[in-house]
Specification:
The complex is a heterodimer of chains A (225) and B (283). With 225 residues, chain A is of the alpha/beta class. Chain A is built from 8 helices and 8 strands, in the order βαβββααααβαβαββα. The longest helix of chain A has 22 residues. Chain B is mainly alpha-helical and 283 residues long. Chain B has 2 domains: 39 residues; 224 residues, MetI-like fold (Orthogonal Bundle), CATH 1.10.3720. The chains are: A alpha/beta (225), B mainly alpha (283).
Chain lengths: 225, 283
């Protein structure tokens, strides 16, 4: 299941993610994981923040193997497991270079591989493609769908881009601030595999887009008043 | 395009060595000329050739004393590194320790070193120990201060990410805070390298019977000015060599830091395909 979360800046998207990742404690209420209340989520959920946060002192391969290594997998084995995923993540041939030597899109894929390899069933992606230019961004969206097609993990994806949310998700929540609340929940019943162009020009896609943009616009008008 | 660029870099690399060399030659020539045309006595300002000649004639004396000073500096510098790094880690380990120690760290640098050096001599005598203490005292400070900053330099976001990867406090230190601090440590080491030569000279002035600093005092009394200049030159060479050693270690231990500051064209990495697409899109 892929869930998109769209919202204005300051709508509480990042707060939500920090709660889900276990970095912050909720001041009230509960978080349910697989229907059970989760006491301590820290380390239970894969988390990929906006910045790639690759360590400049580790090679790309060692960066992607970090999560495995931190969880007690031996360096050698961690590296082997990471290496075997490099072709699928479009990183083959760049195992032994420094992160500063690869492009922004590749850095994001490396950061995503690091999150994937940590092996959590639920992954939070916080605007992972926000810093990329439009074309690379589209390539990355398409690529992410293909990866997900193979792994089928639950992904929570925060974005301020309605089109990105619809294209990637099975369900989209629209959030508005402040206080952060869910304005709208939409199921995206457009079949897979999806493709930039064919899917995004589908009339159903356009209808959903309109449906999502309206509450966002309202929230924006409220915020500026 | 990349060819033209690397040739430019080659030129600038040559220029980096050539420009200061030419400058030095000009300065030496003017100096030589001045001592010839003016009637300044050799005891006030010897000419570069006189200095070189005196240095060569006294080479055994100079060399013997050079080893003494080099030994002091190497041990003192090592002591400064240990002291600086241990203090930095202590200070970063807890707020309370930081509050208690940091002001005294600064105060230690307000103490005039030449004034306390005699006390070290009283405590320990004329052997190697007071020299090591003085050198460590002047050189640990930049190491400690830079390392303290360095241990704060790890991106807080990265530390949060590591917590979601179940990293323990030790792992966060070992994998993030420690490597992030190393470029800062090396900045401190470069300053400390220069300071430790000064420290050695101070220490020898206060109480020594050998070493280049001590030699300067003796030559000064004997108005052997040319040999004195040669001694000063040797002291400068020791400082430069120590600085160069730090630079070399930095390149060996922090290849990522060095590579990241290079021009991307220098890295020998093939341009990734999606980069080409990105550039195409921008055009």
């Amino acid at each position: 299941m892929k869930v998109g979360i769209v919202g204005m800046p300051n709508a509480g998207k990042s707060t939500l993610f920090n709660l889900l990742a276990g970095l912050d404690r909720p001041s009230g209420g509960r978080i349910l994981l697989d229907g059970r209340p989760a006491e301590n989520l820290l380390g239970e959920i894969g988390y990929m923040p906006q910045a790639d946060l690759l360590m400049p002192w580790r090679t790309v391969l060692d960066n992607t193997a970090l999560g495995l290594q931190l969880n007690g997998v031996r360096r050698r084995e961690a590296r082997e497991r990471a290496r075997s995923e490099f072709p699928r993540f479009g990183l083959a041939g760049f195992e032994d270079v420094w992160p500063s030597q690869i492009s922004g899109g590749m850095r994001q894929r490396a950061a995503l591989l690091r999150t994937f390899l940590a092996g959590r069933e639920v992954m939070l992606l916080d605007e992972p493609f926000g810093a990329l230019d439009a074309l690379t961004r589209q390539e990355m969206q398409q690529w992410l769908l293909e990866i997900w097609q193979q792994d089928r993990k639950t992904i929570l994806f925060v974005t301020h881009d309605v089109e990105e949310a619809l294209f990637l998700s099975d369900r989209v929540y629209v959030m508005s601030g402040r206080p952060g609340r869910v304005e709208l929940c939409v199921d995206v019943e457009i079949e897979r595999p999806r493709e930039i162009g064919r899917t995004t020009l589908d009339p159903r896609f356009a209808d959903l887009k309109l449906e999502l943009i309206e509450p966002l616009r309202r929230a924006s008008a409220e915020a500026s008043r | 395009m990349s060819n033209g660029r690397s040739r430019f870099n080659l030129d600038s690399r040559a220029a980096r060595i050539l420009a200061p060399a030419i400058f030095a030659i000009i300065v030496l020539a003017v100096w030589q000329l001045y001592t010839v045309v003016s009637d300044v006595p050799e005891s006030s300002l010897p000419s570069p050739t006189e200095i070189a000649k005196a240095g060569w004639e006294q080479r055994q004396l100079l060399l013997d004393n050079t080893w003494v000073t080099v030994e002091e500096i190497l041990i003192g510098f090592a002591a400064a590194i240990v002291l600086g790094v241990v203090l930095a880690m202590l200070i970063r380990s807890s707020r309370t320790i930081e509050r208690a120690l940091y002001p005294w760290l600064v105060v230690s640098q307000m103490v005039p070193i030449p004034a306390v050096a005699p006390i070290f001599v009283i405590w320990t005598g004329f052997d190697l120990r007071p020299k090591i203490m003085v050198i460590a005292l002047v050189a640990f400070f930049p190491i400690a201060v830079n390392t303290i900053d360095g241990l704060r330099a790890a991106d807080p976001q990265l530390l949060r990410l590591m917590r979601t990867l179940k990293a323990s406090r030790w792992q966060r230190f070992r994998y993030a805070q420690l490597p992030a601090s190393l470029p800062f440590l090396f900045s401190g080491l470069k300053v400390a390298a220069a300071l430790s030569v000064i420290g050695a000279v101070f220490a020898e002035w206060v109480g020594a019977s050998e070493g280049l600093g001590y030699l300067i005092l003796v030559l000064n009394n004997a108005t052997e000015t040319a040999t004195m200049f040669a001694t000063i030159f040797l002291l400068a060479m020791i400082g430069i060599a120590l600085f160069g050693l730090v630079l070399l270690l930095e390149r060996l231990l922090l290849p990522w830091y060095h590579d990241a500051r290079k021009e991307p064209a220098d890295d020998g990495v093939a341009e990734p395909a999606d980069d080409a697409v990105e550039i195409g899109a921008r055009l």
